[in-house]
TrEMBL record:
MF terms (GO), sorted A to Z: monooxygenase activity
Protein's name according to its UniProt entry: Antibiotic biosynthesis monooxygenase
This protein's UniProt keywords: Monooxygenase, Oxidoreductase
Source organism of this protein record: Glycomyces albidus
Xref: Gene3D superfamilies: 3.30.70.100
Residue span, ABM domain: 2-92
Keyword presence, Oxidoreductase: yes
Length: 99
């Protein structure tokens, strides 16, 4: 399984528009991207305009297909004017374990 942690920052005065864009991206991803196991955003309660997206994918091929999908490119373009700084994206390969 591939897990993605994407830390994202909107300019505080555009946090509402950024949040709406993230919501649209989430809906499109969950509806259209095979191999997506989870795709969720959370907003910081201490840092205005800070978000994290946690994604889970079956494999690298599914993640790459998502990154290449038109709805991802459209969201990226739509969100760009509202960004405060570049995203910090970390990608992990993970395996479930028993405790």
């Amino acid at each position: 399984m591939i897990t993605v942690h994407a830390h994202l920052w909107a300019r505080p005065e555009h946090a509402d528009a950024y949040r709406d864009g993230l919501r649209a991206l989430q809906e499109a991803t969950l509806a259209r991207d095979p191999g997506c196991l989870a795709y969720a955003f959370w907003e910081s309660i201490t840092e205005p305009g800070a978000f994290i997206c946690v994604e889970q994918w079956t494999d690298r091929t599914a993640l790459q297909a998502h990154l290449d999908a038109p709805h991802h490119a459209e969201a990226d373009t739509a969100l760009d004017p509202y960004r405060a700084r570049p995203a910090d994206v970390r990608i992990f390969e993970s395996h479930p374990i028993d405790l």
